[in-house]
Amino acid sequence: MLSHLLHQYLTVFGAVLTLVTVVTTSTYHDYCILGAGPGGLQMAYFMEQSSRDYIVFERENTTGSFYTVYPRHRKLISINKRHTGKSNKEFNLRHDWNSLISHDESLLFKHYSKEMFPHADALVQYLQDYHKKLGLNVQFNSNMQNIRRVANDSSAGGHIYTMEDDKGNPYTCSKVIVATGIAEPNIPKEVPGMEYADGYESVSINPDDFEGQSVLILGRGNAAFEVADSIYGSTNVIHMVGRSRVRLAWATHYVGDLRAVNNGLLDTYQLKSLDGVLEAGLDEVKLVKQGSKFVLQFKDEEEDSMFPLDNFALREPYDRIVRCLGFAFDSSIFNETSKMILGKGRTKKFPKIDYDYQSTNNPGMYVVGVASHSLDFRKSAGGFIHGYRYTARALHHLMEWRYHQVPWPSTTGPITQLLTHIIKRINEASGTYQMFGILGDIIILKDNGREYTYLEEYPINLIHRLEEDAGHPTTRIIAVVLQYGANFSGPGNDIFRVDRATGEPSEAHTSNFLHPVLYYYETLPTKSQMLRIAKDEILPRPKLMHHIVEDFLTVWDGPLSHILPLRRYIENVLSSDMRNFFSEDCLEMALTQKTVPIFCEDYLGGEGIPGYRALQS
User: Fold this and answer.
1) Sorted alphabetically, which PANTHER family does this protein's record hold (predicted)?
2) CATH number at residue 321
């Protein structure tokens, strides 16, 4: 027995000694954040506020280094809406696409630019001030390499992460948060002749350099149209080639699609002014140099063919080819043993992560910022500042519970205040508004429906893990989510059709535009139910569901159109009368009926104003 205890002691002592040895030979932090762009800084803010041991490694000598170069023509396409006519801070943040979350009122982007589409230098200055004013722990000129997972029995999860900077200095981290963005130019290796193309990252931004030239642009995203817009007053002709049709942001409601501020080339195409846009997969073509010119040909086409396709749309040679094929995730910073798996299909440029933002093959390694957009790609705003500032906060809450036993922030109140609470949130909340269909409010019904606990902006794809990921005991719940209708839009759809919207509460379920939807579950959905969600749905079928009719002003406070149907829904959920009454009505019902509504129960119990006793004391 004694020898067994001695063996256990030596085993534990040896494990602790191993961790101490690792830490003493390198600099240790609980959390290592890679990248001081908007995503990394946002995460650093939450770490700073919760007094965690963290450090941000930035390879350049400034925060937001990506924006010192991009966009190349220096005009951001993120909306800087400085005025809303409202004074509510949370409502105003709904329409502020550039600010990060903080407690400092001076760190709102509206103080840095008056332009609707600001100059990128303003964002660089903003991020520098955000870092300095909030005292975030950023270490510059630290290009981290050889990031690898190392087994360690004494650490949480049974492993730690080690890495070195470009000077050879070693670092050890319990958790790694990757905020490096998607910044590696995408250069397809399977396209012969791609070396003849000028990359978006290096092409001239001087229109005079394109004077009188014919230009072929590969790609049809915002970068491609940004280049076209800057030079189409100088060129002979601009042709643009991409694998899919043009997707306009105002037609798809996806902010990453082509924005109106960049789409001038569509005018010159459709109004017969020589420029053009067409579809072709780049895996089918090659770029060929002919003298000082360049041509695009199909791979299986022989240059000396006796029967060339004499009406091929791109048969004329070009003076210049510009590659605007987007960016990809840079995996070179990882050791081969710890590289994050990349996604597949249209998310292949992103690292593969679970809905808790954790790498699928590297436990303890998380992703924030643009690189976390795989979870809502082409669905919501998670690839942009006005989206990932909220997903970073959600990740922070998840980590606070997982590693520090701090439950998801919540408020608790009497059930009589639930209707008011919901109305306030759907009309003000910015996180659920921008991360629609991804983050939602969760209402936990307690004490047999007499009390509720309200959790804000929880990842709805983790709703089946609410107890284990948020730290709140759960029975019945209501999820409040903002979402578009199933057939709200799409490339080629007429989104300006006459019947595009409804204002009739009884037809709320047919609403196309963004509107609140409530899901009531008597028990949490199971993992298998989450896996079987239909393509046009975002959550499993609930016990009771309620759509609040879409509103032109996105203000859901109409007594008859919005509030009354919502109150009746809550009454159905609780099987209780949720109306408010005058004091004399409560007294009359108490004298003439066996039961009285919940509001009257509270009133007759001396709670005319919920929380009155607390205010009195």
Assistant:
1) FAD-DEPENDENT OXIDOREDUCTASE DOMAIN-CONTAINING PROTEIN 2, FLAVIN-BINDING MONOOXYGENASE-LIKE PROTEIN (AFU_ORTHOLOGUE AFUA_4G09220)
2) 3.50.50.60
